[in-house]
Amino acid sequence: MSTLTQDEQEMIDLVRDFVDERVKPQVREFEEPDIYPEPLIEEMKKLGFFGLLVPAEHGGVDVSTAAFARVTEEIARGWMSLAGAIGGHSVISYLIKTFGTPEQQEKYLPRMATGEVRATMALTEPGGGSDLQAMSTFATLDEATGEYVVNGSKTWISNAAHSGIIGLLCRTDRDAKPAHKGFSVILVEPGEGLDISPKIPKLGYKGVEACTLSFDGMRVPAAQVLGGEPNLGWGHMMRGLEMGRIQVASRALGVGKAALEAATTYAQQRESFGKPIWKHQSVGNLLADMATQLRAAQLLTADAAERLDSGVRADMEAGMAKLFASETAMKVALDAVRVHGGYGYSREFDVERYFRDAPLMIVGEGTNEIQRNVIAAQWVARSNEH
């Protein structure tokens, strides 16, 4: 596992304290009525959470991917929705830092570091899901004005109503073969020609909205194409998704650890047949498996983060981490309910929330069925290189 710097460890400790002292006592105020947690978001801005992946020269914290993963895990341990509030934002920060023109970096990164401007990414379409190459949203260059005219729709876009930048993946060359060679990421600022729907009702992941974006002839300056050159967006976004999937794996770890912590505490307090229930083999075995699986998920996630930090391709490792961590979080959340017995089904205990939040990581950032395809393809390709 990567060795964190002292500053990075101090940031993680700061996040842990913020979660324990500020988030956990207030979660129910926002989660149950599904209210956007503006006071907590404001505190996160002041603490620098929105600048985690922004370079120091632009006012950011500039932590490693390994540290970013740990921070995300801690936030999700308190409330997964808050980790979602910085998820897409951090991916777009990473993309602008890595591929943006100097003008784009100067324009956006300082304000993104403070949270003054928040960002989200828009990939999924109503009819496409994880099949990104089937997307139909397109942007046509109007050479007379130097603007792209955007038409199409995206759905399940987190933080859509609170974002000042939308990292939109769309077609800029509809004749390209294969299709992905005609994709671009355009940095869209909400305005005329973009309609943002009311929030989509969800099983879990409350507080933070997910919306549908409808583009109807929206005009965006050509200078807003990430990196300044069109038709490179597929490579850009695939690199961004490596970071995104590590972030989702870390969210899953946070939910899983919260569920394990709750189950461990309850199993020591609750007694049956004259002893704490963890001493009954059926419950003790659940705790042992939960702890072991989460440890394995943490190591996979750390390995993917270390590989991304080294600058080499990490899509297989990030996919493995996201796949295993999310499936583990789902199992651990269910087992935490089992440990609590009937109380686990009650909204008086937090484990029911963990059980509602866990499925998002299985279907988000590319479904786990797609992750398996990515892993298999990369495994075969790398095997043939030797």
Description:
- The chain contains twelve helices and nine strands.
- The chain is α+β, with helices and mostly antiparallel strands and 386 residues long.
- The strands form three sheets. A four-stranded antiparallel beta sheet has the order 2-3-7-6, covered by helices on one side. It has a three-stranded mixed beta sheet with strand order 1-4-5. A two-stranded antiparallel sheet has the order 8-9.
- The mean pLDDT is 96.
| Helical content (DSSP H or I, runs of 4+) | 40-55%
Please count the helical segments.
12
- Name the overall outline: globular
Amount of beta strand? 5-15%
CATH topology of the largest domain: Butyryl-CoA Dehydrogenase, subunit A, domain 3
Helix and strand sequence: HHHHHHEEEEEEEHEEHHHHH
Biggest sheet details: 4 strands, antiparallel
Task: Write out the CATH superfamily name of the largest domain.
Answer: Butyryl-CoA Dehydrogenase, subunit A, domain 3
Secondary structure tally: strands = 9
Structural class by sheet pairing and helices: alpha+beta
> What would you say the CATH architecture of the largest domain is?
Up-down Bundle
> Widest sheet: strand order?
2-3-7-6
- Provide the residue-averaged pLDDT: 96
Q: What gyration radius follows from the Cα positions, in whole Å?
A: 21 Å
Assembly context of the chains = single chain
Low-confidence stretches: none
The CATH class assignment of the largest domain is: Mainly Alpha
Gap from first CA to last CA: 26 Å
* Total count of domains: 3
